[in-house]
Amino acid sequence: MASSCGPAWRSVCEKFRSAQHQSEVESRKDPENDPFRSKYNARELLREIHCTLKSLGGGENDEDGEAEHLQRETPGDEHRGGGGHPGDSAAGMRLARLGVVEYYLGVNHVETEELSAGEEHLMNCMNLLDKCAISRENVSVFIHVRNQLGILWAGRDEIDKAQGFLETAEAIYVRYVKEDGQPPADLTDFFMEGEYEITPQERIKRFEMAYTHTLYYLAQVYKNLDEYEKAARYCHITLQRQLQFDQFVPLEWAINAATLSQYYITKCCYMEGRHCLAAASIIANQAGELPSEAAAQESEVEGEKREQLQQKRAEIARCWIKYCLNLLQDAKKLLEDNIGELDVERQEELKRGRRREEEQEERGRKSAVLFSSSDTFDSICALEEKVSCSFPLDFEEARAIFLVGQAYVAEAKDYFQMDGHVTDHIEVLQDHSALFKALSFFEEDLERKCKMHKRRVDMLEPVCKDLNAQYYLLICRQLQFELADTYYEMMDLKLALANKQDELDAHTIKKFNHLCNASIKYYQKFLDSVRSPEGKFPEKLDEEVLRPGLVAKFRLARLHSRLISPDAPTQLQNLNRSLECYSFVVRYCEENPEARKAVETELELSEEMAGLLPLKISRLRAKMVSST
């Protein structure tokens, strides 16, 4: 047998290379009616290799001279061993080779959707490796097989099992780098010789990318376990390493970075969120130039490329919009008093602390996970400088953030047009409206505030009128409520302006009543949308419309009482409608006590007004009788 070991080994190596080619290259050409043909061919070759290795080695427990001969026949081993690890023995080498073949068989079965068989082979690989100490020869196999088992169990929703395999893979990598750190063997090294051997640089790259995959899969596992902070940290490190080792698809990487930014935004980590978004925008540009419309029409490939680039860049633009919007909204929460107005003392206090905050920003930046290894780092930093990551404390600072958000609104709308992207287009419009609303908080001039709300009406009202409620009921409700709310805010602003005048003129009264009636119309449309097909209002509101429905009734009550009318009968009618709406809120909460928590403030005011209005109505009636 020893005399035939040389040719036998060369045959093994040739079969391995052929199996790799079948699995990785030829499989892409397989017909739809036989999608796994090349994978099955690769499997047969791997099985033959497995049988040959077993026969050459004389059994799993054999450690005689034949195994040593086989080890010596493998080219390149002298570059990977040395060092006296227990796994460097001939038997350890043979077991590692068998483990590699079992690993590839396991992957093959998984890829052909034979998961149980795949698991069996992967576990065979694990069992073989467990007989060896971790060494340069086998550390990559240790990590790869646990990655695959992690994916396998995650696909079965056995997240805890997946977590165990992946965390062990992570620990193996950390321990190896700490204790050895030399470039380890790649899985293919066991069966490659001469010109087919990979370079040390490629060996390092593959090892590091295996670990990057471990981190990526762990990020998914932690997300499924609702450990979002941990998931975000692992996702960020994964993105960092993908850039570092130049192993990424630009558009895919950019979308992942933009998605991660949304997590940071929810945690008020605007520096990290901005960094992810800036990187996403820069890296997305590496995907290439946008083909012209003419080129897209002439070539299907160019058309698909144009569509994909436009869509992904528009999605990143939407993430930028959310960044600007959330930054403005969180600043508003920081600065408002208990009635939602600007707290001037708080504003001054925060401005005084701004310098200290800016000094801390640099330290915070150093502790953040930056994409510093990228050759595009300077471009990322330049884009970051175009928008602040600090809370705006006055109108000018807020306006600068608003303008950035508005520019991205235009970019997003360019792709998400009403024709073909109804829902997305309207969501972008709603974000644009929300940007104006957030900016208006910082504006001190009441007239200019009113004009900002008018811009919101102008962008939302035409869409609301044209949208078919039969197909877009939820969106219609959102738009109706927002329009009602916007007109309501405008009414409050006009009321505040009117209170500064000695006497209201006819034009002011007309404008004020128009705003009241417009708000009433949209609140009523919203409430009518929850009625049954027979027009009956539900005895119990669904959870998603409970608070909006009761708030709508409460505001209708206030709006009816605010309407200005020169004649007493109309005044009486408006007050009665107001009382009816206040009473509805009180009665509903009495009949459904669980609703009280949803509208505590509105309920308290409703109870008060439901007690006071009857007296006011009685006085008006008495006055009407006496005047006749």
If you had to describe this structure to a student in words, what would you say it looks like?
- 73% of the residues lie in helices and 0% in strands.
- The protein is mainly alpha-helical.
- Among the domains are: 2-235, Serine Threonine Protein Phosphatase 5, Tetratricopeptide repeat; 537-628.
- α23 runs antiparallel to α24.
- The longest helix is centred in the middle third of the chain and has 36 residues, at 300-335.
- It is elongated, with a radius of gyration of 34 Å.
Major β-sheet annotation: none
- Determine the structural class based on helices, strands and strand pairing: mainly alpha
- What is the overall pLDDT average? 89
As an assembly, this protein is single chain
Task: List low-pLDDT spans.
Answer: 58-88
CATH class designation of one domain: Mainly Alpha
What name is given to the CATH topology of one domain?
Serine Threonine Protein Phosphatase 5, Tetratricopeptide repeat
Number of helices: 24
**What would CATH call the architecture of one domain?**
Alpha Horseshoe
Query: What level of helicity do the residues show?
Result: over 70%
User: What is the number of beta strands?
Assistant: 0
The helix-strand sequence is: HHHHHHHHHHHHHHHHHHHHHHHH
User: What is the terminal separation in angstroms?
Assistant: 126 Å
Q: Using the alpha-carbon principal axes, give the shape.
A: elongated
Keywords: Cytoplasm, Cytoskeleton
Pfam families: KBP_C (PF12309)
Organism: Paramormyrops kingsleyae
Family: Belongs to the KIF-binding protein family.
